[in-house]
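Protein entry
_____________
===
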Amino acid sequence: MSTRIAAHRHAWSLWRVWTYLGIQDFRARYRKALLGPGWVVVTQVFWALGVGVIYSHLLDQPMNFFLPYLLIGFTLWGFLSAGMIDGGSAFLASQGYITQFTFPLETYVLRSWVASLVPLAAGLLVFLGVCLAYERPLSDGLLWAIPGLVILAFVGLTHTRIVAFLSVAVRDLPHAISSAMQLLIFMTPIMFTADMLRKRGLDAVYLYNPLYYLIEVVRHPLMSNEAAPPLVYGACLGYLAVVGAISFTIEHRLARRVVYML
């Protein structure tokens, strides 16, 4: 265990390496595109306007509430999905580095994590822009989103680590997770609110869904300018502790075999 902790500390000390690589991975997705990474913002704006207008009428929700709600929900969902799906290529895409350099494996997990943080940051900026456009009240209560974002970020990192190690042994895992996430998005209050489910006696759909709490710990402060309920923070911290223990167990068992399985 002490060896693994030392390796993680070493990886974090190499922040210039994995930050640079992660940003380059993100930029490579838009190489030679006219707007470059700006397409992230453009896509989010057009998607939010298109889907938000339709669903706000279908669900009889005011646009000044539903559009920001929908936008921040999908932004946070996208970050969680990226950690679970794109994390599967963290080691596979870094095979050349792993076989030639002595960087800790956590370096490549952090590389993938950084690439998923950039769209998250862009989505938050778009959300704030939409709030200003609709003249939604913004106050210092928004700062309660910061501890939620910290929790969410480390959950995303933990998801990436788990999937990165398991995907070396099970190459179909990212595809299976992608299919599962497509199902879970309809079981998580993103395109609808928890109140809608509660009024129809479907509380269990979100009460026992950890992804709901991971989104709500950030979404609630941003939408209401106040801290999320204590239950939300407790559920998120408990989930982080569980997946953290799982990730270190998997890493302990597979870390020495990664090079041979690539």
User: Anything to note?
Assistant: The chain has one domain: 2-261. The mean pLDDT is 85.
